[in-house]
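To illustrate this point, what follows is a protein record of this kind.

___
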Amino acid sequence: MSLQKELGFQRPIENPLHAAVLSVVLTGSLLVKEGHRIMRPFGITDAQFNVLMLLKYQSDDGELNQTALGRMLLVNRSNITGLTDRLEQAGLVRRVMDTTDRRVNRVRLTPKGRSVLDRAEQAYFARVQEIMGTLSEKENMQLITFLERIRKALRTR
């Protein structure tokens, strides 16, 4: 389906650069909605899933300090405290004091958190395969390159 039809526009989009931006934004919005849908059965949000994934894959021991987590998050960094609070209340992570700096909180994945993540991760990667598998490996690599170039242009101001 054409972008014009998807958005319900009555007239064609004349500027191809504008059409490309609208297409990226619409695709991103649909991916975010799909992330919410995938995570709902596991009782977590896509942002909470992101934190759990970072703890599992970006640490040596399932533990990171909150500052590092905030830097790596795909959501607003200021959300890390609230995200951590909710994950801790759910028993998916726990805060521990840093052994070298008492001012620093570390966030540790709990066994319950690992269990929820393992199940959510299976559903996530299966859906990612369905969606992104519509492109060849070469096309996926090209997409990554194109999006990196767009992000670079966005950050140069």
Residues 87 and 93 are 6 Å apart (CA to CA).
